[in-house]
Design a protein that fits this description.
Layout (H helix, E strand, L loop, with lengths): L1 H44 L12 H13 L15 H12 L4 H12 L1 H27 L2 H7 L5 H20 L3 H21 L7 H19 L4 H22 L6 H18 L7 H11 L1 H17 L4 H17 L12 H9 L17 H23 L2 H18 L1 H12 L5 E4 L2 H6 L13 H5 L5 H8 L4 E6 L12 H8 L1 E7 L2 E5 L1
Parallel strand pairs: 1-2
Antiparallel strand pairs: 2-4, 3-4
Length: 520
């Protein structure tokens, strides 16, 4: 009897020790994730409101779009807007609620970018467990391109964040396909898939991995049940319904302006591509620059692909397809900007995480070797590649923040401040200004006509801003100033505008060659 009691005591002690160890592991895991989230938030909020255009032009366009929305003008009908609507719709509430400032406009993008961390967590957890979850989140937190886009009023990071979350939720749903959890993940994947595409059309590439996972699930159900039953199809159906339903909910308010939406979001880009098609030769060099800049991440992704092949883990196929389709789409984009390549970050990070998996099937190629040792070596290499990414990326941040602070200081002391002061004093808040310096006008809290929130080079050369349109908009009674600032209003397609302005406005200030403020 004493021996039985002693055995029971040992069993209870072992259970208590295991419980304590598991609790410590849980605390360490969730503590690490909380720390990464806090770091990510701090990195985004630091210097967020610095008063300079971080992109050089597009921030001013989107800021003017928000100003026009604040005045009550609708997208597409009055405001020219070249993206699907959800990016600006998701940014606008933060802009209004937090004071209508540059900081509040950027805040919305910074917060939405955090959804990408949840997507990284989901996909890392599903592919390589807790270690994969930590690694995927860490890789995204330290990604310089992802961070820089998280501090700009641009659509790229919002679309990437939603797309990453959509694919991550789909992968985790594939691991937990049934019950309330499976239904919730399927719905989340469908909703965020639609939101990513409705931020920027480049995110349509995320349809590829999700569709492949859906097909794989149908094949799995067919093999398991010798047929397909409605109950097993509910999560897949919910994902599709949630995606289509989200699309309809977001787009329904613009149904009456359907032709304008197609013109701004689709036709504008196809027309620009035709005009600027010669610039496509630069796309290969831009892609090469991305590979060179992110060489360690690319190597880690290739290593993860190799590990997946050795384990015969087919889950790499949707990720590889996602990556290849994204590369093809980016190669065909005209004009292609480096910021567009943020779309490559999620599939590369997900593939890199596959290098941290430990399980090898008994019939795998590596079965002839001592699998525990091989698995440990491969995981160690995968971890080393993740750490090397950190070591190479982290030193970039001091110079990134220092450069931002310098640009903000220069903008506060230089020409921008003078123009902002002059424009603010020259016209009242209810008067409009026609300009190609949208950011400077927004700094002065002065709006452009809603059709001219974007006077970019692409829009001018593609014929979506014409000389006649500029003259008509500048003739409106609400327009009391014309500011030439970045040279776009001197392009050959609209070269006569300056002469027209000189006949209808009087010159107030000259700041330099091609930089003038004219007042009605």
């Amino acid at each position: 009897m004493s021996a039985s009691i002693l055995a029971d005591d040992k069993t209870n002690a072992a259970k208590a020790s295991l419980f304590t160890s598991t609790r410590k592991q849980n605390m360490l895991f969730w503590g690490a994730l909380a720390a990464l989230l806090a770091i990510a938030v701090g990195m985004r909020l630091y210097g967020l409101g610095l008063p300079f255009d971080r992109d050089g032009y597009d921030e001013g366009v989107y800021w003017q779009t928000l100003l026009s929305m604040r005045l009550g003008y609708p997208l597409y009908q009055h405001i020219f807007y070249s993206q699907p609507p959800f990016f600006i719709l998701s940014t606008y509430p933060f802009y209004i609620l937090f004071g209508g400032t540059l900081w509040s406009a950027r805040l919305g993008i910074a917060l939405v970018s955090l959804f990408g961390l949840l997507g990284a967590f989901f996909i890392g957890k599903s592919l390589s467990g807790r270690l994969g979850a930590i690694a995927a989140v860490c890789l995204l937190v330290i990604d310089p391109l992802y961070l820089s886009q998280s501090q700009k009023i641009e659509a790229e990071v919002s679309s990437t964040a939603f797309s990453f979350l959509a694919v991550g939720a789909a992968y985790l749903w594939w691991e937990i396909p049934e019950g309330a959890v499976g239904l919730s993940l399927a719905a989340l994947s469908g909703v965020t898939l639609a939101l990513g595409i409705l931020c920027k059309l480049l995110s349509v590439s995320s349809l590829v991995p999700i569709s492949l996972l859906l097909l794989a699930r149908l094949w799995q159900i067919w093999r398991k049940e010798a047929g397909i039953h409605w109950r097993s199809l509910r999560p897949s159906a919910l994902l599709i319904i949630a995606s289509i339903g989200t699309m309809l909910v977001v787009l329904l308010p613009f149904a009456s302006a359907y032709s304008s939406v197609i013109r701004d979001v689709v036709t504008f880009h196809t027309a620009a591509r035709e005009v600027l098609i010669n610039s496509q030769v630069q796309n290969k060099e831009i892609l090469k620059t991305y590979v060179h800049t992110n060489l360690l991440l690319v190597i880690a992704a290739c290593f993860g692909l190799l590990c997946a092949l050795l384990r015969r883990d087919w889950r790499f196929i949707p990720l590889l397809a996602w990556l290849l389709v994204s590369i093809y789409m980016l190669y065909t984009v005209v004009p292609l900007f480096y910021r567009h390549l943020i779309a490559l970050d999620p599939p590369l990070i997900a593939m890199a995480v596959m290098g941290l998996g430990r399980a090898f099937p008994a019939n795998a190629l590596m079965s002839r070797f001592r699998l525990p040792q091989v698995a440990q070596i491969l995981v160690a290499v995968g971890i080393a590649l993740v750490l090397l990414n950190m070591v190479t990326d982290l030193p970039q941040y001091p110079s990134y923040y220092q450069s931002a602070e310098k640009h903000g200081s220069d903008a506060s002391k230089g020409l921008q401040t003078r123009v902002v002061h002059d424009l603010r004093n020259a016209i009242t808040p209810n008067q409009l200004v026609v300009t190609d310096g949208q950011f400077v006008a927004a700094m002065a809290d002065r709006e452009t006509p809603p059709e001219l929130v974007d006077t970019s080079m692409v829009r001018v050369v593609s014929g979506y801003v014409t000389l006649q349109q500029l003259e008509a908009e500048a003739s409106l009674p609400q327009v009391h100033a014309v500011l030439f600032f970045q040279g776009r209003l001197f392009l050959p397609q609209v070269a006569g505008f300056h002469a027209w302005v000189s006949q209808h406005f009087h010159l107030k200030y000259t700041y330099g060659p091609g930089q003038e403020l004219w007042i009605k």
